[in-house]
Structures
1.
Amino acid sequence: NAGVTQTPKFRVLKTGQSMTLLCAQDMNHEYMYWYRQDPGMGLRLIHYSVGEGTTAKGEVPDGYNVSRLKKQNFLLGLESAAPSQTSVYFCASSYLAGGLNNEQFFGPGTRLTVL
Amino acid sequence: GENVEQHPSTLSVQEGDSAVIKCTYSDSASNYFPWYKQELGKRPQLIIDIRSNVGEKKDQRIAVTLNKTAKHFSLHITETQPEDSAVYFCAASRKSNFGNEKLTFGTGTRLTIIP
């Protein structure tokens, strides 16, 4: 199993450009998440999904959109990138057991720089 | 929403000594408290978690304690080793209709083990 994978690993954008980050998991997990990690601020939840075809806002959703058309994939879109979106982006997935979520498995991260 | 505060932000201990990291949370309905370890340049990984129906959980050299009344929980690492050097994140979540799907993370503690 590859676990959780992210594409691309690195990206540099100019202000106003758009891009899509792809997250894929092969563990048949129901839940998927997108976080951003900034120095001194920990991991902040952008959007998440509790199943195929569903999405929900997290703590810092502005400027981002997501889609979960297939259970194994979760896409994060930036329509018009801003320097404030320079960050490391992590995708994660988790499963239900006994009606409760368990460990979140993280991808390797995408380092995004917006100039 | 939930607010998780984590202290200290940096911690240096001599190899073989113990390390303690503390977190407080604001939502009295939170009932799941995981700890993640992130080595430099790597993805966060779960090291231990605790649910609100227990006060303490141990796994070899690491332990977590929970005080629901005071709304704080702590990570204890004994007999520290160089490979314990990393950033540690606490998190908290409450159960919803979909399980404990949303984690709120603390801002992290950078632990350095001095040989």
2.
Amino acid sequence: EVQLVESGGGLVKPGGSLRLSCEASGFAFNSYSMNWVRQAPGKGLEWVASISSSYTYIFYVDSVRGRFTISRDNSNNSLFLQMNSLRVEDTAVYYCVRGITASSRVEFDYWGQGALVTVSS
Amino acid sequence: DIVLTQSPATLSLSPGERATLSCRASQSISTSLAWYQQKPGQAPRLLIYDTANRATGIPARFSGSGSGTDFTLTITSLEPEDFAVYYCQQRDNWPRTFGQGTKVEIK
């Protein structure tokens, strides 16, 4: 069974930093791209960042580029999102989401339960 | 960036009725469109990928169609568990983008 479990969310002041983690299990983590998608309270979904299985590519949405860093540790089946210079508008539930593999182009097929990040003074 | 516009914003229907949800892209995305269902307090669930392919475990009452810029999600006969918010998403280009959502509510 595919499982994605996020951790590291919490309350942080504007300008602060937070690191989200996602522990993956039930699939060949090192074969899949991985993603972060967020959802502000009462709002829609926003893709944040993606990383390929072997760091071939990394993409960010414009609003977080230069402040957020996506990374992964394939030896420990883990995905990370380092968030610096946080803003009030970064307040959201952050989902860890599975991406594609060489043999399957189905994207965003499994989602974690989400980690709430609240940026407030 | 590719903008996805969903309509209507809210669809009020009764169980057993047919639901037709629309998603329009600001430029052609071929068939690179997915649909998700989200219930309150839950993570989104993939329903349809690449316009017309049902994800694992998705009932046959859900179907997708379209190409280019105009796409449709159809639920042939609404079950009580289908009342939720539905999002479309394109994977033709970076950044990946989502529509703003259509809420299917009980009439």
